[in-house]
Amino acid sequence: MSASARIAVPAALAASYRRNGGEAEREWIDALPGLVDRFLDEWTLEPDGQPRSGEAALVLPVRRTGGGRAALRLQMPKTETRAALIGLRVWDGAGVVRLLDSDPETCAMLLERLDDTRTLADVEDDDEAMTVLAGLLRKLTPVTAPGGVPRLGDIAAEMLAQTPAAMAALTDPADRELLGSCAAAVRELAGEPGDRLLHWDLHHGNVLAADREPWLAIDPEPLAGDPGFDLWPALDGGWDAVVATGEPVRVVRRRFDLLTAELGLDRDRAAGWTLGRVLQNCLWDVEDGATALDRRQVTMAAAMRSAAAATSGATRVPSAG
To answer: Which end of the chain is more exposed for a tag (fewer CB within 10 A), N or C?
Structure first.
């Protein structure tokens, strides 16, 4: 850190960029303290606490001129970072953290300050947590997606193109059958991928307590598509606790029933697009070297089979294998 820099980059964030990135990532993380100083000056901000970080972004609590509380968020500009800026502008605080200012070139964001010590994961009652998530999705997904964000139709086509090679990499015939069935469900829906603005990562940890509303979403990865494709993070949230019930399929099915009822979604389409998320996760796992499907994905597929079987004309979905 230079002598003039006002913050130190968290060690875990610096290590993440150096471990997972190339020269561009190393240059960006080295320049980060100066970037923080630039926006503290340009936006007339004062640090108001220690910087926090995840794998990719630094968030610094700040105070604005006049004493208002906010958060300065900095992340290396990438497609998903630029999409997040677009989404936050379009939503304008409806169900999501409000964007107060931004810089398109660097993707720097000045956000309203939320309570990062309280996430939806702290809510023990599962139905209550699902109701909160449904309420947020009800505010987020009615919006028509603008240009500049990824499209589910493109993602679906890419997944279907990758499926044959992934199936060949799996050693268990039951796993290959399940992956093929997930792809079949996506293929049935791919012609109508939808045009709603999706969060794409709305799980319990991405919902923080707030002053303006009881709960608000953070860290969107905006995508244009069908709202059914946005359910998986909520269905999967707090997975260790779900497994600990001894009935994970039942818990996921109950969550699915609550979310689809609250959002007024077509259950068959929602089940099919959730299988699309299963397919996506499995393809990522195979890309990372897996030769067997994660039991979490198998359980999710079984829950969608249960949900679809409860409706007439159900989307074809795979068994648990």
So the answer is: N
